[in-house]
Design goal:
26 strands; single chain; mainly beta; 502 residues
């Protein structure tokens, strides 16, 4: 390669970087215009007085008003002042007021009217915006963010005392706004700790209740796609226009205490949890929600409770998947639940089982359901509430990973069924199923014997239970093992282990 070629290539590369940096400059006016457009696209009416002094654009008397559908109320965010200062390096420093106000007025056609005011306080807030007008990057930090309820009135009545305060400490975050045919938003933030306190006093009910708590190491990361043109009062149109979001919250640990008196009775509830996570996603394809936590403890005591109640759980998890929009083709849905390692202290066990007849191993409940449905109506359609028809059809259902462990017994199972929606006569209005489910019970008879020994189950009741198990199960190879296969065939017959029972 010649020196000339090297020189021209290096020069072209330098020019490319230089031009990119120049194009990346953003002004305070650009940031304010984009921020105002973003809020307007979400249905807010944004007003404020603009003025400029040197490199700083200042907005005073800023108000953002969002009207609820059918004139049932308003949300109003008020800020005395915001500033946008060009820093000379292509970035903008955004100055936020130390205190802002959120006022909520709701007066529905049916139900109670609500008037509430929340004060938003920021300490040590710093926000820097860079990029270009169509691709803005925000970087912000705050020593603390505080939200405090200053007014709460329901149908003209206010409680004798109601206070609520939440503080978020040491906030660090970044977000990007990229504008094209759609607005792409990406956000992430972290906070060292979130604390909250709620107190309610109602003299008429002799109630004085206080709730306090905290969440450590809270973080969030998510993305959203927002259409630039849609009807904010039509959620179906919003999703069909391409709206969608995904997000994940995580925490390091949490604790909560609820204590007080009500009608003269004192009570105290304490909970704590270790690390946990919550994932959410929603778009035209559907809604997904999943989360879980670990090392959960609950302690409950009160003057009207004969003895303290407490338990621990090693893990808890849940997931939900459901479609939202009508479609001719089948759509997936799912629901799962896990409650693992549920244990109660020996003191509580001794109340019900003083001689330790039952094994005191932790209990577990876990299952996953997956299926397919055909939605006949959009679930976001407000008129769905006026319909007497079920908005969809169940076409398939699969049970997997069923585990129930308690008292030394274990039940496991799985199953797979399809459903014929053209036949709702064979099963009393339910679409006719086709498929089978298999279950395995270990230690069932042993558990029943122990319940008889404890006096919880009578001998005659146990006899009936054993007859039912004999009808629906067959012995397995292991000690105290029972197996069962429940089948629905193409003729609509229900079979238990090959024997027709319907």
């Amino acid at each position: 390669m010649s020196r000339w070629t090297q020189l021209t290539g290096a020069t072209a590369l330098a020019c490319a970087f230089t031009s990119s940096a120049a194009m990346a400059d953003v002004t305070g006016q650009d940031v304010w215009n984009d921020w105002r457009t973003y809020m307007t696209d979400f249905g807010y009416v944004v007003t404020g007085d603009e003025s400029r002094s040197g490199d700083t654009l200042t907005i005073t008397n800023l108000s953002m008003v969002w009207d609820l559908p059918e004139d049932e109320g308003t949300f109003v965010m008020s800020m005395p002042e915001m500033s946008f200062t060009d820093q000379g390096d292509g970035s903008v420093a955004v100055g936020m007021p130390s205190t802002s106000t959120l006022k909520i007025d709701v007066d529905p056609a049916e139900g109670e009217a609500l008037n509430a005011t929340v004060a938003l306080d920021m300490t040590g807030m710093s926000t820097i915006v860079s990029g270009d007008p169509d691709d803005l990057a925000y970087s912000y930090t705050a020593a603390s963010l505080k939200m405090a309820l200053t007014e709460f009135v329901v149908d003209g009545d206010a409680p004798d005392e109601l206070t609520f305060e939440m503080v978020i400490n040491n906030v660090i975050g970044q977000s990007t706004m990229k504008v094209g045919d759609m607005r792409d938003v990406a956000q992430k933030f972290s906070a060292d700790q979130v604390t909250y306190e709620l107190r309610v006093v109602d003299e008429a009910e002799s109630a004085d209740v206080v709730a306090t708590g905290s969440v450590d190491n809270l973080s969030f990361e998510g993305e959203a796609v927002v259409p630039s043109d849609y009807d904010v009062e039509d959620p179906t149109a919003l999703f069909k226009a391409g709206f969608g979001f995904t997000g994940t919250f995580s925490q390091g640990g949490s604790q909560m205490q609820l204590k007080g008196t009500a009608d003269g009775d004192a009570f105290n509830v304490e909970t704590s949890a270790g690390s946990g996570e919550l994932e959410m996603a929603m778009d035209e394809a559907g809604f997904a929600y999943a989360g879980g936590g670990s090392d959960i403890t609950v302690n409950v005591a009160g003057s009207d409770i004969p003895f303290p109640v407490s338990f621990e759980m090693a893990e808890a998890g849940y997931e939900l998947l459901m479609p939202l929009m009508a479609a001719d083709e089948e759509q997936d849905f799912a629901f799962g639940l896990t409650l693992g390692g549920l244990a109660v202290p020996d003191l509580l066990w001794s109340i019900f089982d003083p001689t330790a007849v039952l094994p005191r191993d932790p209990a577990t409940l876990s299952f996953d359901l997956e299926g397919k449905t055909r939605l006949l109506m959009d679930l976001m359609d407000p008129t769905i509430e006026d319909s007497d028809e079920f908005p969809g059809e169940l076409t398939a259902l699969t049970l997997s990973d069923l585990v129930i462990e308690i008292g030394g017994a274990e039940l496991t199972g799985k199953g797979d069924f399809t459903f014929d929606n053209t036949d709702t006569q064979s099963f009393d209005g339910m679409p006719r199923p086709l498929g089978e489910a298999n279950f395995r019970l270990l230690g069932g008879n042993g558990l029943l014997d122990k319940l008889i020994q404890m006096g919880i189950v009578q001998e005659q009741d146990a006899m009936g239970a054993r007859m039912m198990m004999g009808l629906f199960t067959t012995p397995g190879p292991a000690e105290d093992e029972l197996n069962s296969t429940i089948e629905v065939n193409e003729d609509g017959h229900v079979l238990a282990n090959g024997q027709r029972i319907k």
